[in-house]
């Protein structure tokens, strides 16, 4: 299994949801999470920082397991400042 928290989280989300790596890397952790339902939103974005897009223009919500949600929460807690800066950078990139 992946050694670092980010890679482990990516592998789990990809395996559980079937989303593409570009979709997963395009998630906005400040707006694309439903904490009540433990779901992640996949959104078609014309200009992702990673230059990848969702396969189609349909927004969709994907459920993840309790284990994956817990790892997501650990990741967000451990890298809170980095995640906030990355989210700001994504918005700047998408607005260009």
Describe the structure.
With 96 residues, this protein is mainly α. The protein contains four helices and three strands, in the order ααβββαα. A three-stranded antiparallel sheet has the order 1-2-3, with no helix packed on it. Helix 1 (5-17) packs antiparallel against helix 3 (66-78).
Q: What is the CA–CA distance across the termini? A: 37 Å
**Main sheet strand line-up:** 1-2-3
The low-pLDDT segments are none
Q: What percent of the residues sit in helical stretches (DSSP H or I)? A: 40-55%
DSSP summary: helix tally: 4
Average pLDDT figure: 80
Strand content: 5-15%
Query: What's the order of the H and E elements?
Result: HHEEEHH
Task: Please report the total strand number as a whole number.
Answer: 3
Structural class: mainly alpha
- Major sheet characteristics: 3 strands, antiparallel
In short:
This protein is mainly alpha-helical. 49% of the residues lie in helices and 10% in strands.
Key features of this structure:
96 residues, mainly alpha, three-stranded antiparallel β-sheet, 4 helices, globular
Q: How are the SSEs placed, and which strands pair?
A:
Blueprint lengths: L4 H13 L3 H5 L7 E2 L4 E4 L17 E4 L2 H13 L1 H16 L1
Antiparallel strand pairs: 1-2, 2-3
């Amino acid at each position: 299994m992946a050694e670092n928290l980010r890679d482990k989280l990516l592998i789990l989300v990809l395996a559980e949801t079937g989303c593409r790596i570009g979709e997963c890397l395009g998630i906005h952790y400040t707006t694309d999470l439903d904490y009540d339902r433990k779901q992640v939103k996949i959104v078609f974005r014309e200009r992702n920082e990673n230059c990848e897009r969702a396969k189609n223009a349909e927004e969709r919500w994907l459920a993840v397991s309790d284990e994956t949600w817990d790892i997501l929460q650990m990741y967000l807690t451990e890298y809170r400042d980095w995640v906030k800066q990355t989210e700001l950078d994504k918005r700047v990139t998408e607005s260009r």
